[in-house]
Structure prediction request, 319 residues.
Amino acid sequence: MKDPLLSDYDACLFLSLTNRCNLNCAYCVTHDSPVRENGGLPEINIPAFVRALEKTGKVFKIRFAGGGEPFLIPNLVEACAELTRRHYVGFTTNLTCANVREFAEAVDPRRVSNIHASLHVRELEDRDLTDRFSENFLLCKRKGFPVSATVVAYPPLLERAEAYRTFFGERGIDIFFGYFVGTYNGKRYPAAYTEEEIRTFGLSRIGLRAHPRYRGLCNAGFNIGIVWPDGNISPCLETPREILGNIYDEIRFNRFLKVCPVKSCDCPLKQYDKFLFERAVRESLCDLRIVKPLLEWGCRRLTLGKENRKIAPGTEEHA
Ligand code: SF4
Prediction:
């Protein structure tokens, strides 16, 4: 499904520019890792990025996501103000940084696809950041940004799931639980969720069933890609060696859909943006519609050539 607020967009880039984070959640891939505290925080080269986008002639949705907290990037607000002149931006953020206020003033909510606010309840309690999160969330909501709050359905949170719903609900923040991908107590999630956990967290059974089966054709690299801290673009997290250019120079998408190269995918780009996947399939079919008549024409020529040879006097076939 297309992001409901967007008029249209042609392609999407997931920018994973930093692993630095101001929180240290137990279920995060960078939990207790040195990069969480000391990872680089590269400034975005705004003019070069805008130029590379313009060269493609496409309208982009640019999602700031990845292992770290995007609002820690020094010139994020300035970059978003510039990018949203023509493109759209979106975020996965813990929404606890001070510059969220500045962002809410500087950027037009109509150019924001969504703010996926990851609500890390335990970390916020430990660091006394619950109020900061709530204030930033409510500010974004008041300003008209499409903001939603998701808690990771981490098994140890089960007992307090309902209490969290009530607490934030009373503050005007509806929370949702999203499934945890990883290992807890030796069990692999999301496959290990019990019936009680699925019910209490309110997890989508369809999503859980589909989770390990994203193989087949994928639009990663066709109209969607991920961007590493140095600006290089790859189709997805599982294909880091395939480089489709650099956001500060040239963006080169593939001409064809990819056959997924891995056994199971934890980060299915075609699932994250179904609108772009469907669009990619349609455009590939268009390509086929162009290619098919050419193939038929080529086959006809071959057949005719063969028939002509059959009737030509003096040839072996004729004799
Ligand atoms: S690993 Fe995931 S994102 Fe990458 S090609 Fe396969 S399904 Fe698509």
